Amino acid sequence: MQEKGQVKVNVGIDVLWRALAKDLKSILPTIVPKLVNEAEILEGDGGLGTVYLFKFGPDVPNMSYQKEKIVEFDESLHQIALQVIEGGRLNLGFTFYKACFQLTALGDSETLVDLKVDFAIECQETRAPPGETVKSGVAFIQALENFLLKQI
């Protein structure tokens, strides 16, 4: 299955790309500490093949951690995709979960973020309501935008 979402942010593409693709480990616990209270790189250098461990905070019920691997990384296209490889959503009935972020410059200080979530589930009861799989990704991008705007 696949769901898509889109959000426009008031941050330039280079700043947003650096935060999303290069500084994710340090920024994520800062911008959403009640969702992710710790992030670390288990393997890799932040590029293709990198494995992250995200430890969830008190606002994430039924999940304590999630391991994600960067399975797509194209700096020239400003595209990154992370696939859940252990824990988290895989413990909630998803058998596959991958989120892909595609950034497109709309000017010096605006970026369009297209989010595509590919997923598979064990049974229909597992499936979140339509749009729920992209909702958290869009909320994350908006939190990232707010954080970056305060830094500028």
UniProtKB/TrEMBL annotation:
Which CDD domains does the record cross-reference, listed alphabetically? Bet_v1-like (cd07816)
Short name of one Pfam family:
Bet_v_1
**Would you say which domain of life the source belongs to?**
Eukaryota
Every copy of the Bet v I/Major latex protein domain together lies at 14-150
Gene3D superfamilies of this UniProt entry? 3.30.530.20
Family of the protein in this entry = Belongs to the BetVI family.
What name appears for this protein in its UniProt entry? Bet v I/Major latex protein domain-containing protein
**Which species is this record about?**
Rehmannia glutinosa
